[in-house]
Design a protein that fits this description.
Blueprint: E1 24-31, E2 38-45, H1 51-64, E3 69-73, H2 82-90, E4 94-98, H3 108-120, H4 128-143, H5 146-155
Parallel strand pairs: 3-4
Antiparallel strand pairs: 1-2
Helix pairs in contact: 1-2, 3-4, 3-5
């Protein structure tokens, strides 16, 4: 919920489903080696993510991106585990680097999710499937706007080398 209207002195009532359903997402903003192309990759899951789903997502990136893949990510606990260690051992072109502890301002993906939350604000999906559909629609719209993806990268405090 971002903003709502109600008569002065009356608390607005927001109706929503209150089940334990969830949608978890993992995404990556990509920049080509010559910095000419930007991209967005996204996977949605109906449950909490573990290092196994992260490894599946990394394999997806490796299938779609040529050459060396340099991944800069936060220190989340799901970014560590046997599946990721094994994947790095098998794919020497995958290079993982961690951001400093709690540094969302360095992560362009935070811009993607802030944008998505804004686009979905005040919406009221009636099911998890509706939320999946809405997230997919927003991510496709972002993917078709390279200038917007570049803005997320330049708005981050990453070194200019990556812009």
């Amino acid at each position: 919920m971002r903003r709502t209207w109600a008569p002065r002195g009356h608390t607005p009532v927001i109706h929503h489903w209150d089940r334990r359903d969830r949608v978890s997402a993992i995404s990556a903003v990509t920049v080509s080696p010559q910095r000419q192309h930007v991209g967005l990759y996204l996977h949605l899951y109906p449950d909490n993510l573990t290092h196994v789903e992260v490894a599946i997502f990394l394999r997806h990136l490796l299938r779609h991106l040529r050459g060396h893949v340099v991944l800069v990510w936060d220190r989340g606990p799901i970014h560590h585990g046997r599946a990721i260690t094994d994947l790095c051992r098998r794919h020497r072109r995958l290079h993982l680097f961690e951001l400093p502890g709690y540094a969302p301002e360095l992560n362009p993906d935070e811009g993607v999710w802030a944008y998505a939350k804004g686009a979905l604000a005040n919406g009221r999906p009636t099911s998890v499937q509706d939320l999946f559909r809405d997230l997919t629609r927003v991510s496709r719209a972002v993917r078709r706007r390279p200038a917007l993806l570049r803005a997320f990268i330049t708005a981050s405090d990453l070194p200019p080398l990556l812009h």
